[in-house]
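ok trying again, last paste got cut off:
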Amino acid sequence: MTFNVEILNPKAKKLLMDLAELRLISISENKSNPFIAAVKKLRSKKATLSLDEITREVEAVRTKRYTK
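nice, full thing came through this time. structure:
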C-alpha cells in the first residue's frame, strides 16, 4: 500500500524517520518534477488540428492584431 504524505511540521518528519528506523514503514522521496510531467503529457498528445486549420487560426489572429 502506498501513500503520499506532505509533511507540514518538522516533528512529523522525525516521527516518520523513527518508524522507518524500526522498519515499520519505508520512505522514498518523489523526485519527479510536476512541470516536466506536464510537458511530457502535452508532447505525447497528437495534434487535433490539421495544418489548414492551424493556418486559418494564425491568419485570423494576425488579421485581428494588425487591424487595430
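cool. Residues 33-68 form one domain. The CA atoms of residues 33 and 66 lie 39 Å apart.
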